TrEMBL record:
Acyl-CoA dehydrogenase/oxidase C-terminal domain ranges (all copies): 201-325, 598-727
Family: Belongs to the acyl-CoA dehydrogenase family.
Name listed for the protein in its UniProt record: Acyl-CoA dehydrogenase
Domain annotation Acyl-CoA oxidase/dehydrogenase middle: ranges: 473-552
Organism the protein comes from: Novosphingobium beihaiensis
Pfam families from the UniProt entry: Acyl-CoA_dh_1 (PF00441), Acyl-CoA_dh_M (PF02770), Acyl-CoA_dh_N (PF02771)
Cofactor(s) for this UniProt protein: FAD
Domain of life of the source: Bacteria
Residue span(s) of domain Acyl-CoA dehydrogenase/oxidase N-terminal: 6-85, 357-468
Keyword Nuclease: no
UniProt entry keywords in alphabetical sequence: FAD, Flavoprotein, Oxidoreductase
Length: 736
């Protein structure tokens, strides 16, 4: 897996970034608006850097660089609001090089002397249409029926007209202008169509750069501006939407990267992924600039402030092709109706989302285990929660070294890297086996190994590692929820050194099945709440422990557990007295930025199956309708987004790329998408989805109910949004 640029690409990106920082400043952007939205000097400078030759084939005297390279330029152009039809010109020069016959014009376009752009619609059907850069274009490459043509645009045909962002768009009567046929027939039309697909990816990355810069400006302002005596960045009404938006912005970029990777790998879904990337980026940009303006308040509405430039360009750039929702519908047809797409040549793509051979090996091992050891009768009782626990299968997984995959080898685990762990989770999901027992056991075992006494390791850790005992977590309490450091369940040390545990723990999932609970207890009521806590292992079969069931509408059981003078020896304490926070942190190394992509994908597959079964009026099935295809495509995009965000978290941890709250991003973002999509797919497949009938309907039904818990347990979305805002965007702390 790789999310890094090559050294050459990083140098190229920095070169373009420096140039645009100097030559596409806000002052230059404003000046260009006053002269038709085109900065001729900047354009010439980009030409000198080779921008317009990047995608021209080498046989046409171009640089022959990949689509990814051009995307790096577009991201910087978006960040700096470059004034001119850059994405369109990159595509047009490539088309001229591919189709041939216009070497003189191509040379002029590459040198920046002339501007060549593209038309989005068939001139035979729409002779008069809006063209990006039409106000300054010397020529337009377009489709006209069965031909690809070059339309020469004289100066008197370019009529300036006020528009949303003062960009150099113009409505041109292309049908009335001189045309030259560049190519005819299937191959020529496919070449032109591939250019339109390339434009979608380039505009996606431009919008990603624009959005990231707009959000950065808003976050910086929120950390400087005070209202009511505090920085406005401490207001969660401002910071939490920013946390959502940074996930969306990164997802749009990664969707474009994924589409390029899919093109290079020959994946069938590449065409749909292109459409989804453009749709996703347009929506994310619109939402980002809207919130940025809101953050700046009244000043953001003024033409004196730069943020309004980002707001208007966010809409102006993609809308030249029409309604972005059309791309979502197009993706639906490509995914579920067999519509073909003509794809551009991606060239070299440095990013890689393959989890690797070790990951595939562990998946094969897991599938072989279930095929050999698990019966259909056992599968019938599988469930995503603790209620699906099967002690026989768990013991067999332990013996096969397939239970404690994340746990380091020195503790007795498999010691897999994050990529293989992610792959293993996917394989377990495919088998229908969710494993909270093993996941919690790994965490508890690691803490016992690092902080436990020899006696505790012998009496408890050995049993956990052999699969003969399982553990629960005792963090949350009725009065503190996700704020685990506010725990009030107390542990009082006795004269003989032993401890008495008194209090209540909430959401002690599995306590009705487990042997031990890892508990965070208050041992010094007078100390600050983060410092007066200690960690213990407490036997759940001990005298004084009461387990009371709490049932959820997710078909799972959790528990409230009561502790009344439960005595444990001091040897069952973990770490220093009042050092519970540091002890608990030892488990964080097992966090690999998981998220819920695997359950989102399973839900989508069931929804597709169900749509294939549901009849519609007039004949056919629901899957044949544009409505279903569009909404399934939206969920598909969100599944990919969740995967990419989680992969980034994996990759940054493996390669030590720093902590930008990537793990919380993966968990929060995927759980929120899961709940949104589960609700929508429940609606789409109604009333069949109301049934708990075995099969796809039951799965969609359960997914809707399951999704609600994912935004709460493991840390609520609100807590994670605060972490993302603080670590990912540098906003001031919004939690006491």
């Amino acid at each position: 897996m790789n999310f890094d640029l090559t050294d050459e690409q990083e140098m190229m990106r920095e070169t373009f970034a420096r140039f645009l920082d100097d030559n596409s400043t806000p002052a230059r952007v404003r000046a260009a608006q006053d002269t038709g939205g085109f900065d001729a000097e900047m354009w010439a400078g980009l030409a000198e850097l080779g921008a317009f030759a990047m995608r021209v084939p080498e046989e046409a005297d171009g640089m022959g660089l990949g689509l990814f390279d051009a995307g790096l330029l577009m991201e910087e152009a978006g960040r700096t609001l470059a004034s001119g039809p850059l994405a369109e010109a990159l595509v047009a020069t490539r088309l001229l090089g591919l189709l041939g016959g216009q070497s003189e014009l191509l040379e002029s376009a590459v040198s920046g002397e002339k501007v060549v752009t593209i038309a989005m619609q068939d001139v035979a059907e729409f002779p008069s249409q809006w063209v990006a850069g039409g106000l300054v274009a010397d020529a337009v490459v377009a489709r006209k029926g069965d031909d690809v043509v070059l339309v020469t645009v004289p100066a008197d045909a370019r009529v300036a007209e006020a528009n949303l962002a003062s960009t150099p768009i113009a409505e041109l009567d292309l049908g009335a202008l001189e045309t030259t046929v560049l190519g005819s027939g299937t191959d020529a039309l496919a070449t032109f169509a591939s250019g339109i697909e390339e434009w979608k990816l380039l505009i996606t990355l431009a919008l990603s750069g624009l959005s990231r810069q707009a959000l950065t400006m808003a976050a910086e302002y929120a950390g400087e501006r005070k209202a009511f005596g505090v920085f406005i960045g401490t207001f969660q009404a401002l910071s939490h939407p920013m946390a959502d938006l940074i996930c969306e912005i990164d997802s749009a970029k990664f969707l474009a990267w994924k589409a390029m990777r899919s093109i290079a790998d020959g994946e069938a879904a590449a065409g749909a992924q292109i459409s989804l990337a453009a749709w996703y980026a347009a929506g994310a940009a619109g939402r980002t600039v809207r919130h940025a303006v809101q953050t700046f308040g009244g000043i953001g509405l003024t033409t004196e402030h730069d943020i309004h430039l980002y707001n208007l360009r966010a809409k102006a750039w993609p809308l030249i092709a029409g309604d972005p929702e059309d791309w979502l519908a197009e993706a639906g047809r490509r995914l579920y109706a067999g519509e073909a797409a003509s794809l551009p040549d991606a060239g070299e793509v440095p990013v890689e989302f393959d989890l690797g051979e070790d990951a595939r090996a562990i998946q094969r091992e897991i599938h072989e285990f279930f095929a050999k050891n698990v019966t259909d009768e056992q599968r019938e009782k599988f469930h995503f929660s603790w209620e699906g626990h099967n002690p026989v299968i768990h013991k067999q997984l332990v013996q096969a070294n397939l239970a404690y995959l994340q746990l380091p080898k020195d503790v007795g685990g498999r010691g897999l890297d994050p990529y293989a762990v992610t792959a293993a989770r996917d394989a377990f999901e495919e088998e229908g086996w969710n494993n909270p027992v093993a996941n919690v056991a790994q965490m508890v075992a690691l803490i016992m190994y690092r902080f436990g006494t020899d006696e505790l390791k012998q009496e408890v850790l050995s049993k956990v590692m052999s699969g003969d005992a399982i553990c629960s977590l005792g963090y949350s309490e009725p009065g503190c929820g996700s704020d685990v450091f506010a725990a009030q369940c107390k542990a009082t040390q006795q004269d003989d050194g032993s401890w008495l545990i008194d209090g209540t723990k909430m959401w002690t999932s599995g306590a009705n099945l487990t042997d031990y609970v890892l508990m965070l207890c208050r041992t010094d009521p007078d100390a600050p709440k983060h410092k007066g806590l200690t960690m213990f292992i407490v036997p759940l079969k001990a005298e004084g422990v009461t387990v009371q069931a709490v049932h959820t509408f997710m078909d799972e059981r959790t528990n409230v557990t009561f502790y009344d003078n439960v005595r444990i020896p001091d040897t069952w304490r973990l770490g220093a007295i009042n050092g519970g926070g540091r002890t608990m942190a030892a488990s964080l190394e097992l966090e690999h930025g998981g998220g819920f992509a695997k359950v989102q994908r399973a839900m989508l597959e069931s929804a597709v199956e169900l749509c294939g079964d549901i009849p519609v009026a007039g004949g056919g099935k629901l899957i044949d309708t544009a409505k279903a295809q569009t909404r399934l495509a939206r969920t598909y995009a969100n599944v990919l987004a969740s995967e990419m965000i989680a992969y980034r978290a994996n990759w940054t941890q493996v390669h030590g790329k720093g902590n930008g709250a990537y793990g919380p991003m993966a968990k929060m973002f995927s759980s929120e998408l899961f709940i949104t999509d589960s609700r929508d797919l429940l609606d789409l497949t109604a009333p069949y989805s109301l049934s708990k009938r075995k099969g796809a309907a039951d799965h969609v039904n359960l997914a809707y109910r399951h999704a609600h818990g994912t935004t709460i347990y493991g840390g609520t979305s609100q807590v994670h949004r605060s972490m993302i805002a603080e670590k990912g965007l540098g906003l001031p702390r919004s939690r006491n």
